[in-house]
Amino acid sequence: MSLTRIGGLATGIDTYQMIQDLMKAHRKPVDKLLQQRQVLQWRQEDYRGINAALLNFRNAVVSPLRFNGTFQAKTVESSNTAVVTATAPSTAATAIYDVTVHELATTAYRTSRQSITRDGAEKIDPDATLWSQYELEKFDDSWTIDPETKTFEFSLTTYNQDGTTNNNTFVVDATQKSLNEVLADINNAGELKLTVFYDATADMVSISTKHTGDNNAGGYEIGLDLDGEGQEIGFLAQALQLGNVAGEAEIEQGGTNAQATVNGMTIERAGNIFTLNDVNFSLKAAGSSTVTVRGDTDAVFQQIKNFIDEYNKLLDLINGKLQEERFRDYLPLLDDDPARDNMTERQIDQWEQKARSGLLRHDTILSGIVNRMRADVFSPVAGLDESLNHLMHIGITVGSFADQGKLIIDEAKLRNAIEQDPADVAKLFNQSGATTEEQGIGHRLYGYLDTAVKRVTAQAGSSTYTSSYDPSWLGRQISGLDERVHRAEARLERLEDRYWKQFTALERAINQMNTQSMWLMQQFGGGTYQG
Predict the structure, then answer these.
(1) DSSP secondary-structure letter at 525?
(2) Maximum CA pair distance of the chain?
(3) What is the per-residue pLDDT across 144-168, written as a single tens digit (0 to 9) for each?
(4) How do the domains of the chain map onto residue ranges?
(5) How far is residue 201's CA from residue 455's CA, in Å, rounded to a whole number?
(6) Nearest residue to 271 (alpha-carbon basis) of 253, 258, 287, 255
(7) Backbone phi and psi for residue 458, each to the nearest 5 degrees, phi listed first
(8) pTM of the complete model
């Protein structure tokens, strides 16, 4: 039901402004609720920001400290990188390898034994159809195309490094395909692993394998079509001059295995890259080199240093919130707050910074998290040798009281500990145990951070929660305020409607009185006086 609102027509009163002024007083409790809701939302955002930092620290920084591989990183040095280089995973043993490279593995290739254009003919056009070039008798006359179908076919066979074969047969419509297009079809036949091209200047074709090695013992790496006597024939062998001819030097070159000696042991591989004793060797040239595999002190040092740096950053973040000053006189500015009209954007930002400052000051949840983290990090690990069961034994100590639990590294002492006792340093972080005291720092901290994240989530919810579903404590508080605001807004709407009804009734009454007064005046003024 719509309400007819009449303002000031009869009384001359600014009804709209008067009702707005009356409603301002009634809206103050609602504004307080909205400000309370804003404060809760800011607290929720602050909690969630810390929770994201806790989760990232747990997964990206603490998690790797639980695994042996983190502390078994290897570095590899070659005395002659022009001969051989190598890499090694954490599983590789520390060792020294004397490597002599005798021969590198090579790819197999064939190049036309002579120009593919017949003597006396104009040079072949590689972009014209093969049929047009065939009719002009540009190819060797030992190769023929069926004049009726104007098609031909040819086959190719290659060999993988494990000895398995790849076969492909190409059927070519000579009236549709050019030389370059046929060569492109070979290149695109991925299973063959071949590279082929025509050079117009040399008037020759080159075809080569993409992988190295003698993969077809006693035979060719690039297999062409054969006749009944085992002679290579067909488009590739005859038209492109890529075939071997009896009594002449073999046209295929390469396709050899790598030959090397490693610590006196003869090694033969189809490729120049191979793995031996978990070490990945890459042969570069003939010659000798010494490959040394040792523990990567720098990698382990950086892993531990990164942990300490990120741990200190996290403490700074949480301690900053715990000690942030609270300005209780600065309440959130609402969108329709008149104070905004007299403030610049910078002043509004400064006001908001103070309004949301200190919302987690002395928070018991965050205080508990900080205290537990400090205890987990700087408590000895039970079951280890007493000379290396605490961070201070590897050069990591707690700073002054003003540092609020932040850790300080003696880099020289830490490096020395990693070099001298890598296994014991690893146990300090990754030892597993039935109790917290027996667990290494990585395990105990990882486990507690999971609990901490869940605790903060229960308090403030997660960014994955929707506004309609947030079972956290703050989420429920915000929902409760939303309901109270909704009910209060409904009451204010009813009250405003009542004011308008009352003022509208007043306007109608005054208007009716004015109408009656005018009628009476007309009656008195319209009579004839007789004396």
Answers:
(1) H
(2) 162
(3) 999 999 999 999 999 999 989 999 9
(4) 49-69+299-468, 74-105+257-295, 107-254
(5) 76
(6) 258
(7) -65, -30
(8) 0.70
